[in-house]
């Protein structure tokens, strides 16, 4: 069962918390859900545009975006690998992003506040690892070499286990296949095991490849 469903949703309420915290009436729930998705998409697009404008920003990734809503306040917390470019850019990236979001969502009655936090161990996050593998595959690096390098990077983050899987037309082969590599323990069916998971899509010259990463952090 643990292999068939999302490992994060499987552990909600035990070792995994929600990335959005707010209350709404049932008739307004859909609007709040769509608003959260639009906020996340707007932030990701803004970061990607900044990355295109500067070659030095290659490899910057957003691990996750947490949203907390109150009656008069929307608090957005961005967990990033390198938040320096948003804090030091001219004009300051955070203020520019905050202004863009307020105009986009017409937050007249609610104040929008954006906070940025740096991840202490970025390569212990599957989203950042998946982006690293995607960049390697775009540069035509061997998929096995990219997966092994990603596993080496996770050793810096003191993880207990990792599994990396790539699916699609790997290396331009005509028939799609699935390749995976694992190191350490990855207990998908143990609910008390704190897991992190990411599913990422990358477009290469051969077609679309799917990257999945499971990381075993700790057991409670």
From TrEMBL:
One of its GO terms (biological process) is translation. It comes from the Eukaryota. One of its GO terms (molecular function) is rRNA binding. Residues 133-215 form the Small ribosomal subunit protein uS3 C-terminal domain. GO terms for cellular component: chloroplast; cytosolic small ribosomal subunit. HAMAP family: Ribosomal_uS3_B. This is Small ribosomal subunit protein uS3c. It comes from Prestonia portobellensis. The gene is rps3.
């Amino acid at each position: 069962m643990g292999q068939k469903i999302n490992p994060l949703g499987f552990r909600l309420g035990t070792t995994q918390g929600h990335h959005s915290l707010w209350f709404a009436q049932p008739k307004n729930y859909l609007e709040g859900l769509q608003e959260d998705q639009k906020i996340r998409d707007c932030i990701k697009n803004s970061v990607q545009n900044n990355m295109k404008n500067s070659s030095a920003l290659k490899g910057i990734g957003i691990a996750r975006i947490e949203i907390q809503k109150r009656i008069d306040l929307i608090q957005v917390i961005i967990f990033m690998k390198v938040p320096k470019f948003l804090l030091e850019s001219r004009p300051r990236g955070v203020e520019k992003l905050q202004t863009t979001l307020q105009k986009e969502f017409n937050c007249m009655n609610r104040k929008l506040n954006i906070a940025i936090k740096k991840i202490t161990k970025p390569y212990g996050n599957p989203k950042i690892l998946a982006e690293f593998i995607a960049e390697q595959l775009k540069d035509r690096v061997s998929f096995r070499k990219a997966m092994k390098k990603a596993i080496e990077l996770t050793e810096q983050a003191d993880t207990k286990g990792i599994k990396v899987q790539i699916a699609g037309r790997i290396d331009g082969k005509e028939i799609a296949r699935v390749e995976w590599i694992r190191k350490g323990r990855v207990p998908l069916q143990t609910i008390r095991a704190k897991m992190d998971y990411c599913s990422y899509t990358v477009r290469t010259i051969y077609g679309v490849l799917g990257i999945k990463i499971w990381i075993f952090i700790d057991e409670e």
